[in-house]
From TrEMBL:
<feature type="transmembrane region" description="Helical">
    <location>
        <begin position="228"/>
        <end position="256"/>
    </location>
</feature>
<keyword id="KW-0812">Transmembrane</keyword>
<feature type="transmembrane region" description="Helical">
    <location>
        <begin position="292"/>
        <end position="310"/>
    </location>
</feature>
<protein>
    <recommendedName>
        <fullName>Glycosyltransferase RgtA/B/C/D-like domain-containing protein</fullName>
    </recommendedName>
</protein>
<feature type="transmembrane region" description="Helical">
    <location>
        <begin position="161"/>
        <end position="179"/>
    </location>
</feature>
<feature type="transmembrane region" description="Helical">
    <location>
        <begin position="92"/>
        <end position="116"/>
    </location>
</feature>
<feature type="transmembrane region" description="Helical">
    <location>
        <begin position="322"/>
        <end position="346"/>
    </location>
</feature>
<feature type="transmembrane region" description="Helical">
    <location>
        <begin position="268"/>
        <end position="286"/>
    </location>
</feature>
<feature type="transmembrane region" description="Helical">
    <location>
        <begin position="186"/>
        <end position="208"/>
    </location>
</feature>
<keyword id="KW-0472">Membrane</keyword>
<keyword id="KW-1133">Transmembrane helix</keyword>
<feature type="transmembrane region" description="Helical">
    <location>
        <begin position="55"/>
        <end position="77"/>
    </location>
</feature>
<feature type="transmembrane region" description="Helical">
    <location>
        <begin position="123"/>
        <end position="149"/>
    </location>
</feature>
């Protein structure tokens, strides 16, 4: 995690690094205008930036977080296995779960970035579940205090967490009141319930009245929203099959056992199951489907799934055995390859970006002015505009270079908005809507942000048309997944429907290229 540490493109990381370098406080979790309230999100960054600006320091902190998560997860697994005397032949599950989590695309994305509140949320939720389980067994004050503290830290790292904490606390509180058990457990679950209520009250007071447009809210017609939600759920199911398929089935089966078979409701594990499902439903309702959003659910639900599937031997049920097999197969075929690719891409993309910036800055310092074009990129919001826009900022703010211009040679997509025009900007890409023809000496930058299918044949064409002056030497690999293979097999018709004009389904090329327009 620490090696190859660079400022890189990983969601909001790219602008967060600039704030760190400038030592500007990062306030990313308090945005009343779009309904966001997770104020503890950047506390660690604001503390670290007082002492460090090097990327190595931040990824060293992330590595410590991953190590702590692995230790707590291992301790939780040991506690579950030992308490319920799960046969030792299942001990291989320890390693499988650890590796599965570490290589999950969402976990990789979160832990190889700095902007994600899930980094700390997963750790605190794991500690909360472990402490709550140990409190359930021992009734010790230490576990009650640790559980209460980590629950409250988790609450202010992602909004839907209050649903999970609130359900665990409230349902247990109702059970205790019904049984007239006003003991230490009553205090603990009352505090959890109160904590969730306080969060909700703060949200309704500080955020809700000031919402202008909810985060990710769109004005699309119903059919477009339905298709978007269906695709989002399908993506979740492919990447998170265990918690999108096995967990809901387990929840439904538990309801059947409780209501139809009159089986006793398990105050701990049933609330963890239903609280986790409620957390998932919140993201579906909010139409948020990025690959890292459900990572906290693994911390929430893992102990309960293991308890029911292994300790209560649900795995002996043919139906559960089949679902577990299918989920394992999907995870191996679909999830793991994307996780491995995500790890390689995130770690190497930053190095390529840094090296390309260094080359361009060197060229700018040798010349009165240089003009940059980004092949397969442009002003339309369908393009990967984040690449050229942040390269411009890094050249100016980090490398101290301002004698450059960025122009566009690729036409915009029809019926898709373009970036906001800024007539005061010195860059043509912002202050004009013109499509320009590269002139002698101009630079053409090609990397995997292009919308063109930049295979070997495309690279040959570029080499014939322009002079290759720079190629990154960092290892890269194409994006190969079930979805990309389907798009490739079914050709342009399906590809154009699924990705607006973006033909680069394998995210090629695997290196960064800089070309110079030849002399006439």
């Amino acid at each position: 995690m620490v090696i190859y540490a660079r400022y890189t493109f990983n969601a909001d990381d790219i602008w967060v690094w600039l704030e760190i370098l400038a030592k500007h406080p990062i306030i990313n979790g308090y945005r009343p205008y779009d309904g966001r309230f997770f104020p503890l999100a950047s506390v660690d960054l604001n503390i670290l930036m007082q002492f460090f600006t090097s990327a190595y320091a931040y990824f060293f902190f992330n590595a410590i977080e991953v190590f702590c998560i692995a230790i707590i997860l291992w301790k939780l697994l040991e506690a579950i296995f030992e308490t319920y005397q799960i046969t030792s032949r299942y001990k291989w599950i320890y390693i499988a779960i650890l590796l599965g989590l570490l290589l999950h695309p969402g976990f990789v994305t979160v832990m190889l970035g700095i902007c994600y509140p899930e980094r700390l949320q997963v750790l605190f939720l794991l500690v909360f579940v472990y402490a709550t389980f140990k409190f359930y067994l021992t009734n010790r004050v230490l576990y009650m205090v640790v559980g209460f503290i980590t629950a409250n830290l988790s609450l202010y790292l992602k909004e839907p967490t209050f649903l999970f904490i609130g359900l665990v606390g409230f349902v247990n509180l109702v059970i205790l009141v019904k049984n007239k058990s006003f003991n230490r457990s009553f205090v603990y679950y009352a505090l959890l319930t109160l904590s969730a209520m306080i969060y909700l009250a703060l949200y309704m007071w500080l955020i809700y009245p000031h919402i202008i447009q909810a985060y990710n809210d769109t004005k699309n017609i119903f059919i477009e929203q339905a298709i978007y939600i269906f695709k989002g759920i399908a993506n979740f199911a492919l990447l998170d099959c265990f918690i999108m398929i096995l967990l809901p089935v387990l929840g439904a089966y538990r309801l059947y056992r409780i209501w139809h078979k009159k089986e006793k409701f398990h105050s701990l594990f049933d609330t963890l199951v239903f609280g986790s499902i409620l957390y998932i439903l919140a993201f579906i309702k909010l139409r948020l489907f990025d690959q890292y959003y459900l990572i906290p659910v693994y911390a929430m639900s893992l102990s309960s799934v293991l308890y029911y599937v292994l300790a209560l031997k649900y795995i002996q049920n043919t139906f559960f055995k089949l679902i577990t097999f299918v989920c394992s197969l999907v995870f191996i075929i679909c999830t793991l390859p994307i996780g491995i690719y995500s790890f390689m891409w995130i770690k190497t993309e930053g190095v390529r970006f840094d090296q390309t910036l260094s080359f361009l800055a060197h060229e700018a310092k040798k010349n009165p002015t240089i003009t940059l074009y980004f092949d397969g990129n442009g002003r339309s919001k369908a393009y990967n505009t984040w690449y050229w826009s942040h390269m411009a900022r890094y050249l100016t703010e980090v490398y101290g270079v301002s004698n450059f211009d960025i122009k566009v040679k690729d036409s915009d997509y029809q019926n898709i908005p373009t970036i906001q025009q800024n007539l005061d900007s010195p860059l043509t890409i912002y202050n004009s809507k013109n499509i320009d023809e590269p002139q002698e000496g101009d630079f053409i930058i090609l990397n995997n942000s292009t919308h063109h299918y930049a295979d070997s044949q495309y690279l040959e064409t570029m080499a014939q048309k322009y002079d290759l002056v720079y190629k990154s030497q960092v290892f890269g690999m194409p994006y190969v997944s079930i979805k990309s293979l389907i798009k490739y097999i079914f050709g342009d018709s399906l590809q154009q429907k699924l990705v607006v004009g973006n033909q680069n389904i394998f995210k090629l090329p695997t290196s960064d290229y800089v070309y110079r327009v030849k002399k006439n």
